What does this fold into?
Amino acid sequence: MESGKIEKLLELYDEGKTSLAEEKILREYFLNQEVPEHLRSYQLIFMFSAKQKNETMEKAPKVRSNKARKNWQSWASIAAILIVALGVFYFNDTSQVLNENDLGTISDEELALEKTKETLNMVSQLMNEGTADLAYLKEFNKTKNKIIEID
Amino acid sequence: MKEHNFLNIINPVKDKMYRLALRLLTSKEAAEDATQEVILKLWSRKEKIKHYANIEAFAMTVTKNYCLDQLKSKQNSHLRIVHQNYQNHGPSLQSEVELSDEMDWLQKIVETLPEQQKMIFQLRDIEQYDYEEIAEIMEMNQTAIRVALSRARKAIRENLIKKHNYGIR
It folds into this structure.
């Protein structure tokens, strides 16, 4: 093909006005023969485009596997939460039952009252012994009054 | 739609989707992941897809949007895409080495184009879609696409010539 026609097409090509058929003519021209030096840049671009078209995806696309794994994971997490929750409830229940069994070892009510009184008395006695030691604090107040005179 | 039918529709398009993703994301791994993600998205919407007139254009649009989202999220987290497309160039003749050098240069030049021009150049000059389909994929009007394509073509050639003269002058 004469280079005059090619150059006219190239002008249109630069303006983005060529049709696919015209671009095909250009592509065949540049890929199949020697071109004049001033058109070398066009040739490189067409070679680049042609080469890029050979790039293919190596991995085959999958439709199922990823999704299946996601589903499996979500069900597993739900099951795990259920197991933990049920486990916590189960152990809480048994410990409460044990505590209730421990209570009420004395069945006679009067005896229970006596025992309670005894225990409370013992507690108050011990309390009084403790407070008796606090009497020494008064000594501190006395000495303080000697040193600091108010008014 | 059965899985088998779906793959029959997708297989001829998947390389085009991959190449568009590669043009935008640069890294081969990222492009493969993106294509796979988009195919899964399409599969999950398979009942609706049946009613689209042009499934190929729709698949390309989804790919484009997915890749732009990826780029946006990468930019937001201040991450640069690191790619390791190592290739084993076997022993080759001097002229072939020179040619592959030119091709690498063109690759770099195309990478510097704005995303929109990159995509339109990819769709027109590499995948050879007609303007109507590009308009559908890019969700733009045809005049705007012609303008962007013209800019992209001129920019690529100017950069190439600049690079060539650099050694001489």
Notes: Residues 99 and 105 of chain B are 10 Å apart (CA to CA). The mean pLDDT of chain B is 82. The two ends of chain B are 62 Å apart (CA to CA).
